Amino acid sequence: MASVRTSPRSSIQSTADHPTGVAWGPENETCGSCAWAWGKKCRASTQRIDPAWRACVAWHGPLDCLACAACCGPAYDAVELRRGDVRHPDFVIVKDGRAQIARTATNYCSALGEGNLCAIYGERPRCCRDFEKGGANCLDARRRSGKTPRWPSERVDRGDDRA
Predict the structure, then answer these.
(1) Does 101 reside within a domain?
(2) pTM for this entry
């Protein structure tokens, strides 16, 4: 039985879905305060939003790269290098004819150090410099590493219910 949708700005708990089609989230947060808000678009759901709407269940607070490091970890298997990126040969290997940053035994970037600090941050490769906190690649890395749940429709589309 479908429920009648209430105003998205309402702080009253309701059985109606958030306008993006998922459950309501924290009462004191809005879509605009979510880490995945990008203007009037939600990067998590890929849908248009009103930043004033009450948050959905996928709401996420500010991102902290040093607490995460998903982009430097097993979410991706390689950091391929372009010409000019090879400034720290101690971290570079050649695999299948391509230069890349070496990985650790647990598939993290070998330049990632204590406290998730990058040993070559000031001269990191281009793909790392282009990686935007809260951007599409960040969301992808966080989802691949399990730090951010997949959007509910993605779990259904894949035929499983993993977070």
Answers:
(1) yes
(2) 0.75
